[in-house]
Design brief:
By secondary structure, the chain is of the alpha/beta class. The protein contains ten helices and 16 strands. Helix content is about 30%, strand content about 25%. The strands form two sheets. Strands 1, 9, 10, 11, 12, 13, 14, 15 and 16 form a nine-stranded mixed beta sheet that branches. It is elongated.
């Protein structure tokens, strides 16, 4: 098999489409690249939202990675099942999810779980629950440094919130969490300049907290786009996630990042309804549909135009349609891999064009047992 067809299976006759294919050797190489960029295991806290699989967690653990970040209680439970040492639930729990978080701590006592708060009301609920359970809960303050999605402003109220955590016997302030997913400049020098400027507010906040007599144990910063920039800082944990599987959107936006595509969708032509029109069995239910077209990069058909999609269908215009017949197999790399993986119960693993097994997308649903 040539390098240009690294993704192609030798025999597709037993594969139902659409299917999610994973390439473990490429994931392994991406882990090595993450470690090379970060400089050390201690500064890495990879996010598992992209893959949601025990096998990928275990691959990272074999490289010495034991700190992880996740977005749901189910993902946190999966990490507990994998005996991860240190897990951050990077989604402030509210209402019933606070109870679930404490049940998670009870179910997996060997794992140190922490989560986020960004306001005094949620903190009060956490304190109340911890007091009733006679526990100490580890918390990070979620800081908004420009994305305007979650977090509190890096000001005096954040210092007061940190102090409230530290001064209560049932809570421990682990540090600061800041996600800067809004920084997506393609030029790495421009991305670095914007990222560094935004991070100055975090450093000022950290200094302000320390001037009040408190120690900021840790700062968790960024996601995949800002990963190479934050990796150059000292005493900072970086939290890349998409880097493990990579996708077409990030490959286009960030050519400076040398990660390999490790997740591919197998699809088939199911109809040729009109001249220059072909239809694939890759609908909204099989690939992330939240962005405009294109939803995927169709390998070998990159110059085609994706013109329509419904629940089970992807309609494409191409002047090459006469070269193909109904039933032909194509491969595609999703533009956004994270929500795409979550649409599949399992991923088929591939090595050298052969099927080697299947990995369950174990945290696909919102709940495993807790």
């Amino acid at each position: 098999m040539s390098d240009t067809l690294w993704y192609a299976l030798k025999d597709t006759s037993q594969i139902s489409s659409p299917a999610l294919l994973l390439f473990p050797e490429r994931i392994e190489e991406n882990i090595r690249t993450m470690l090379s960029i970060s400089g050390s295991v201690s500064s890495l806290r990879p996010h598992i939202k992209t893959h949601k699989m025990a096998e990928v967690i275990q691959m990272q653990q074999r490289h010495g990675i034991q700190k992880f970040k996740c977005a749901t209680i189910a993902e946190a439970e999966l990490l507990g099942k994998c005996k991860a040492e240190d897990v951050l639930l990077a989604m402030q729990p509210v209402a019933a999810n606070i109870d679930r978080f404490f049940r998670l701590m009870d179910a997996y006592p060997e794992t140190e779980f922490s989560t986020l708060v960004d306001n005094s009301n949620t903190l009060s609920e956490m304190v109340s629950k911890a007091a009733k359970a006679n526990k100490i809960v580890s918390l990070y303050i979620d800081i908004n440094n420009g994305m305007n999605r979650t977090g509190c402003a890096p000001d005096d109220k954040a210092i007061d919130l940190f102090a409230s955590i530290e001064e209560n016997e049932h809570t421990k302030a682990r540090g600061l969490h800041v996600y800067d997913g809004h920084i997506r400049h393609t030029d790495i020098s421009e991305r670095k300049e914007v990222c560094d400027t935004a991070f100055e507010t975090i450093l000022e906040l950290k200094l302000g907290i320390e001037n009040h007599g408190f120690q900021v144990e840790n700062v968790i910063a960024g996601g995949s786009p800002s990963f190479p920039i934050h990796a150059q800082r000292t005493n900072i944990e970086t939290a890349p996630g998409t880097t493990l599987l990579w996708d077409s959107r990030y490959a286009e936006l960030f050519p400076d990042m040398p990660f390999l595509h490790a997740a591919v969708l197998l699809m088939r032509i199911i109809s040729k309804p009109a001249k220059d029109i072909i239809c694939f069995d890759l609908g909204h239910k099989s690939v992330a549909p939240e962005m405009g077209f294109p939803r995927v990069t169709i390998l070998g058909l990159e110059d085609s135009e994706q013109i329509g999609q419904s629940e089970e269908h992807l309609v494409v215009r191409t002047n090459k349609s006469d070269a193909f017949k109904v039933g032909d197999v194509f491969y595609a790399i999703p533009m956004h891999v994270c929500p795409t993986v979550a649409k599949y119960q399992e991923a088929i693993t591939i090595s050298e064009g052969e099927v080697t097994g299947a990995w369950q997308v174990a945290a696909q649903n919102r709940r495993i047992t807790i």
